[in-house]
Write a structure and sequence with these properties.
Number of helices of chain A: 12
Strand content of chain A: 25-35%
Distance between the termini of chain B: 32 Å
CATH topology of one domain in chain A: Rossmann fold
Distance between the termini of chain A: 14 Å
Structural class of chain B: mainly alpha
CATH class of one domain in chain A: Alpha Beta
Helix content of chain B: over 70%
Structural class of chain A: alpha/beta
Helix content of chain A: 25-40%
Largest sheet of chain B: none
Order of helices and strands of chain A: EEEHEHHEHHHEHEHEEHEHEEHEH
Number of strands of chain B: 0
Strand content of chain B: under 5%
Largest interface: A-B, 35 and 24 residues
Oligomer: heterodimer
Order of helices and strands of chain B: HHHHHHHHHHHHH
Strand order of the largest sheet of chain A: 5-6-7-3-8-9
Shape of chain A: elongated
Shape of chain B: elongated
Number of helices of chain B: 13
Number of strands of chain A: 13
CATH superfamily of one domain in chain A: P-loop containing nucleotide triphosphate hydrolases
Largest sheet of chain A: 6 strands, mixed
Amino acid sequence: MKQAIVVEGLRKQFGRREVLHGIDFSVEPGSVFGVIGPNGAGKTTTMRCLLDIIRPSGGHVQVLGEDPRHAGPELRRRIGYLPGELFLEQRITGRRLLDHYAAISGPVKPGRIDELAERLDLDLDRHTRKLSKGNKQKLGLVQAFMHSPELLVLDEPTSGLDPLVQQEFLAMVREVRNNGQTVFLSSHVLSEVQQAADEVAILRDGKIVTVATVDALRETALRHLRLTASGITADDAGALLSRVPGVGALEVLEVGDGVEVSAVLEGGIQPLIQALSMLELKDLVLEEPDLEESVLKLYGMPGNGKRNGAGRKPLEALKGAGDE
Amino acid sequence: MNRKLPLFRRAFLDPWRSTLGWAGGLAAAIALYLPLFPSIGGSSQMQGMINALPPEMTKALNYDQIATGTGYTQATVFGLIGFLLMTIATVSWGAAAVAGDEESGQLELTLAHGVTRIQVALERALAMALRVVLLAVLVHVLILTLNESAQLKINPQNLFGATVMFAGLALLSGTGALFAGALTGRKAYGLAVGAAIGVLGYVFNAVGRQSPDLNWLLNLSPYHWAYGNSPVTNGADWAAAGWLWGISAGLVLLSAVALQRRDVGA
């Protein structure tokens, strides 16, 4: 089957400022593809190009087998879109607004709107401009999902949602993927998309840094570690921990009769746990893997902490961008 | 679900409060001005006062024929307060239709659905035109209703012609605002262009009437095209009506083309 999205050499200039410098990626049908990157990296611009809201300055874009620039409204009926910034200031109820979008979009199954609203715990009979940010976001999600489009393009879909609703959203994404629909979503932090996405593209300053599966990224993941322990000197603690494979950026401070330690850990945690069992721990924080930071460090990108001398997995561990 | 012209229906029906508000304003202005004619415009005392004014001022305000019911209606309702209210309304609608919607981030979402940009521009322009027609009909009906009691002696046919001019003149400002907004995506530019059409048209008319040397200014004034021959008194100049409505239609088409050709929300 054809790819759901193919982007080749996509460039976009606004005036003299180029915001996309030739990006390449493709999205398999029936998969969830996440694009992450800091604000201003070009995520929203890329998405808008897919929907013909803005026009590329160069390169090729194919969405569901068609060129969005020329495919017209029929193509956009097959797409559900959630814009990154959602403004719904009208004096009409959510239900009427959704009816309107249903009228200019693909057909919506009867009851589908209510079903989605119920799942997201959204009151459709309130005026849209009185809704909180999170509730507007829910309305935007219902709008994108309601006509069961072949492709969902969701720009920062979880922003403003509380954790419970985020979980529900992730369940919805899994469901549509099981239906064979394709999801293309963005976030400024990887932790938000890593649960949902099969593949992740990391976009920075208008360039794709890498495209990788989440599993491949996880292998290179860094975790931050902080602990306090008593009854040990800084030298002993340092010696103990530096022997643990994968530990780097080790900093040990002597405090009272104990130590405060901070470090990063790459790879498995079992060796670390064994080493820690010899300590009299007072406090221990082992953070979730920060995949984004690990990827940026891997590529020696500035801006996210200092480079770390410890050896890193080779680039080959990651699937290259634009593999065809 | 797939009813006809969904964008038009939304653009026309949703802002019913605004339409109603402008209708109320126009109705109030007409109900305040016209019943006063027997005691103000028609009295010889008033004519004496008008004669005492500097003639330049009389001309600028179109008060030269204020002593007749038709001249009074022309100068006050069509020429001044009605013109002002309608122009403000259409300029704000025209600027909001594309550029305002774009600046508030909502146009992007509409365009992401199964619509074309040409359809967006045309259906919204149609909604604006229909709102203008609705208000013009109201003005027409109200003046007809007051014709007798206010002793205006207006020929209904001439009134119809004047109303067509009135609506066409306001629509021109509105479509000018629509076009500038569709071209630039900036509501402020839309408002500026729409207001400029109204204000400059009025000023060119006022100045152009002052001396034969400045008569050429009248050719540049949509206000003068519409009202130069005092349509309430003399009936519409239908060629001028054709120009007003025709240029508006042209601006709508240009708006559609302009919107079609550029990035939205960039």
